[in-house]
Amino acid sequence: MEQYKNELIEVGKLLYQKNYITGTEGNLSIRISKEEILTTRSGVCKGNMSSDDLVLVNHVGDPIGSDLKPSTEFKMHLEVYKNRPDINAIVHAHPEFVISLSLAGHNFDKQYLPESALMLGKVPIAKYARPSTTQVPKSIKPYLQKTDIVILDRHGSLTYGKSLLDAFYKTEILEKTAKIIWLSSRVSPLISLDPLEIKELLKLRVEVYGLDSPLP
Q: Of 103, 88, 100, which Cα lies nearest the Cα of 177?
């Protein structure tokens, strides 16, 4: 259990240091077993957490042996775990370039960089849902079997993977890609990768990199 706690604390610091979250934004979780999930408590700054800021919950989100409450947005974590038994960890963040591009109408359906084609694919944007309500898990459900990365309209990003670092790296790659797109678009219209090249890159994804997670 200590290992999982340390991972949550360290990744929380990384998210905060990189400005992917500010204040008490964001939430993280790790699936411990079929019945148990370790997650960040409500209202805590993820850049300054201790083990006392983490709460163990059951598979329906009820705290186990604690008065602490998980984030009010933990409902979307439960939705991911329910639909994706292969997923062990989730990161919800508010990366500024990702949010800025989505507000500007960029739909993330084109590939400009080989790295993003390999790691991200076409990233869907879930329709706007009021934070902390059941609207959020409903908004992401259509995409959970198709990808490990969902942008929440006007709200941020949701990434998930086999480990917490896996989920964090997807957030990092998504935000770096968004930043490059944003900066490049200030100079000239962007030129996307050739569709045939994208097909070849997707072959490499499996054959060379051994990545088997869903990708649209």
A: 100
CA distances from residue 170 to 36, 93, 162 in whole angstroms, order as listed: 24, 11, 11
The tens digit of pLDDT for each residue in 72-94 reads: 999 999 999 999 999 999 999 99
| 53 in a structural domain | yes
Q: What share of the chain is helix, strand, coil (3-state, %, to 5)?
A: 40, 15, 40
Any domain includes 102: yes
The tally of domains found in the chain comes to 1
Look up the CATH number of the domain holding residue 44.
3.40.225.10
Nearest one of 39, 34, 70, 214 to 142, comparing CA atoms: 214
**Which residue is associated with the tokens 């200590």?**
2
Domain containing residue 67 = 2-109+121-188
* Domain presence at residue 215: no
Q: Kindly list the distances between the CA atom of residue 18 and the CA atoms of 12, 22, 42, 70, 175, in Å, as whole numbers in the listed order.
A: 10, 10, 21, 23, 10
How many angstroms separate the CA atoms of 146 and 92, rounded?
Answer: 18
Residue 202, in any domain of the structure: no
pLDDT at 174: 97
pLDDT at 216: 65
> Is residue 117 predicted with pLDDT exceeding 80?
yes
pLDDT at residue 206 is higher than 80: yes
pLDDT reported for residue 107: 87
